[in-house]
Design a protein that fits this description.
- By secondary structure, the chain is α+β, with helices and mostly antiparallel strands.
- It contains 21 helices and 13 strands.
- Helix 3 packs across helix 4, helix 4 crosses helix 7 and helix 11 runs antiparallel to helix 13.
- The chain is extended, with a radius of gyration of 37 Å.
- The relative contact order is 0.12.
Length: 695
Amino acid sequence: MAEMEMEMMVVATSEEEKPEPTDRRKSLVSDLQDRIETAKAYHEEPFKRMKEDMDAAMRGYDKREYNDGFYVANILQRHVQTRTAALYAKNPRALAKRRDRLDYSVWNQEEDSLKMAYAAIAAEKQTGMPAPDTMMGIVADYERVQQHRKMLDNVASTMEHLFDYYMNEQQPSFKSQMKALVRRVITTGVGYVKVGFQRDVDRQPEVAARISDLQAQLDHMRRIAKQAKDGEIDKDDPEIEELILSIEALNKEPMVTIREGLLFDFPESDSIIVDPMCRQLRGFVGAKWVAHEIFMTPDDVYEIYDVDLSNNFTSYDLKGRKGHLGDPFRSGYKDPYGQESNEDPEGLVKVWEIYDRQAGLQYCIADGHENFLMEPDSPPIKVESFWPIYTLLFNELEHKNQLYPPSDVRLLMPMQHEYNRSRQGLREHRRANRPKYVAPAGMLEDEDKAKLASHPANALLELQALAAGQKVLDVIQPVQQIGIDPNLYEVKTIFDDVQLVVGQQEANYGQLSKATATETSIAEQSRMSALGAQVDELDSFMSDITRAAGQVLLAEMSLEEVKRIVGPGAAWPDLTREQIMEEIHLEIEAGSTGKPNKAAELRNIERIVPFLLQIPGIDPSFLAKELLKRLDDKLDLTQAMSEQIPSIIAMNQAQLAAGAGGPQAPQLQGPAGANNAPRPRQIAGGGVPMGANAD
């Protein structure tokens, strides 16, 4: 049987041939590739600087100026690690905020008018005299708004729990990825997060496993067919037909959702290519397009985009060099069907995901490939900024010709070099001061020289040139050493400059500071000021990605999936998702990513709680929950209190029967007596809730 006939018979379930791209489409793809390459050339200098900064942070020096034998104390790496730990110690606490709106159309938001309206309704129930329509309108308007706000609050609470779930569900963990991002920004000057949503739709697991097993058998038969030359396999082999029929039957099984949820990608600093017209990296102000550059194997492209590139792409090696093949990592290369290839390794494919705001489209192309990897369409992730990519910067400055700010590593590079040079000079001085001796030429034999140059401790040396009774100083003379002036190699002024540039003290690098208490306090204030600026930048960045994440969740998540994750009490919008997006947005609690100062928080709590308890009508349980939230947001007082509610009710009833504030009250409830017991909220003035005008 001919090879072609066997192949056609076996690949009964293979994909149809895709049409050849038109000349117009080829021209568009080529134009997009040229556009990106031009932008990369425009940003070549900052991208090169990022690589240099990464090398310097790794080594502690610029390899262009130092040899491997030079003294190095890596201050840069210490700064990166210390600053990262200070900036990101835990995942942030997401808060769903309701947008401030003037919701009341009848009520003037004056408490007295609301009290009068409720009093009029109460009087109607007692006397039967109808309340004025204006009063009825005020109450109806108030209750309508309160009901709407309660619904929004329930949705907001659900969003908070949902975001917290997906943040903890990320693999690798969101915390480890964010710490890596902060390190990247400190090292290179810029970092990115790409927000996405994954929905894996597949057949039931047992069905999918069965298909995979049968597909493997079919692939085996296909490989045999390709190698068959002399008709070893019968064209009417029933096993092949059975496999094909089994796969066709299983392919008819219904699809189910395996997993869905938020995804966070963390692109490298130089993998985001920005339109040269961009004037500001945060929000990509002025940019018409932004591209994400990704290196993949041909197998990855086939699996993700269902495109067999064959040899129609530009090949790269692991270091991103064009046209380099034969890399060791490519040994054992397999084709899309799992067949071991005996051909030369094909290298990596450079793929670009392009977000074109002007056209409102997302393009996916590969370098050297003349067609799209997938049909251009609007971005699958719908966010208000259009770009699903968000930028973190720490040292942003206004500069006409510099879009990328300098990194902390770049700012500290001169101090790092000066420190290394100072310590290297001291090392060379010490080496120069090692004991040395001089002797007249020809006085010492080579054997004597070897003994003097290297000998163990407490050695007894027998010198051939030394006669009996002759003094050693008559034969050899010690060379006078050069005294070391410590002022020539002091490094305190270097750390003074470090403090000026990035706000770090000597103590942050493990140095013992000789400064006074006042000087140390001033230096710490400077450090906190520098750190505070970066904390503020990080908070704004985290709020941007949490806001986008909330929009993605509202657009993509179903009520069933939300209840499965959050619980049966979850509330999901009755309104359209667009309406909810206008009402609620996610942001993070300011400063919630940093390492908490528990001691300072405890001191503040101790100062403020006594004053709060003196306010009439304040709820102690509310205070307790808020205080625990400040100390540990994972602790929940609700469960502990709920277990004691029956006994508290019984105790309150007994007190009321005996008379509130009686002699027994102080013993039962503390110094404040029964006044400390939680009370149901009363309606003042005929039923008005206390604080009714509050949001």
